[in-house]
Design brief:
Elements (H helix, E strand, L loop, with lengths): L6 E8 L8 E6 L25 H10 L6 E5 L9 H10 L3 E6 L4 H8 L4 E5 L7 H5 L4 H15 L2 E8 L6 H14 L3 E6 L22 H6 L4 E5 L1
Helix pairs in contact: 3-5
Length: 231
């Protein structure tokens, strides 16, 4: 099954995508959402023009067994691929820890994938009622938050992160999001200010919008045992 995993790209070494681990990142091809700020739009189609054969990926990992700690399955949305669980098992059998980046597009598939992960970077797109305006897909907020429930119930180590483009997020909504996450039981939260060099929606400004929120970060920081602001 894992041989059918469609990999649209690979980062051979990163210290950022799995906290505390030297990792490589496999970018799985395909995503059902169309997030307006998406900076990997080439990974959205179910088939990509530069896919890597899974056997070649395994060969790369075999040569890195003594050099890397972990392999992160990112995307796109990796949990949409039926081959993901088998691929995760193969990677674990090679001695790597398994990381997963996901937005939980399909909660049942996400729950299956979480069971095979050691750490999850979970994309909370926004307040459930606001998510469709970001993804372009109705009820995507319901799916996103239901998958969050699965993650928190799993006991798997995680980080929840929200990407912010200030044309899509008012500071007050971000603060409310943080409050809801705290009430949900989230302990580790990161806010990532969007990278504007390449985005799916050309109507979004590619220049950073200056939003003066001197107290916002402190308020959010006080809500979580672990909080990180990136970008």
């Amino acid at each position: 099954m894992s041989r059918k995993l469609r990999v649209g790209g690979l980062v051979p070494l990163t210290t950022l995508d799995y906290p505390g681990q030297l990792a490589c990142v496999l970018f799985c091809q395909g995503c059902a959402w169309r997030c307006r700020y998406c900076h990997n739009p080439q990974l959205i189609p179910p088939r990509g023009s530069e896919e890597l054969d899974w056997c070649r990926v395994l060969g790369f990992l075999q040569r890195r067994q003594d050099l890397l700690d972990a392999v992160v399955f990112s995307g796109g949305e990796p949990t949409l691929q039926d081959g993901l669980p088998g691929a995760m098992e193969e990677v674990r059998a090679m001695g790597f820890r398994v990381g997963l980046h996901s937005a939980g597009i399909k909660p049942k598939a996400f729950a299956r994938a979480v069971a095979g992960a050691d750490w999850v970077g979970f994309d909370v797109k926004g307040l459930a009622e606001d998510v469709p305006a970001i993804t372009g897909v109705e009820r995507s907020g319901v799916a996103n938050w239901r998958s969050l429930e699965h993650l928190l119930a799993s006991g798997v180590d995680y980080e929840c992160r929200t990407t912010v483009h200030w044309q899509l997020f008012e500071p007050a909504r971000l603060l409310l999001l943080a409050q809801r996450l705290q009430a949900f039981g989230v302990k580790r939260f990161a806010v990532q200010l969007v990278r504007t060099a390449r985005m799916l929606d050309p109507q979004l400004s590619d220049a950073p919008v200056q939003v003066m929120v001197p107290d916002l970060w402190q308020h959010i920081r006080e809500m979580f045992p672990q909080f990180v602001l990136r970008g």
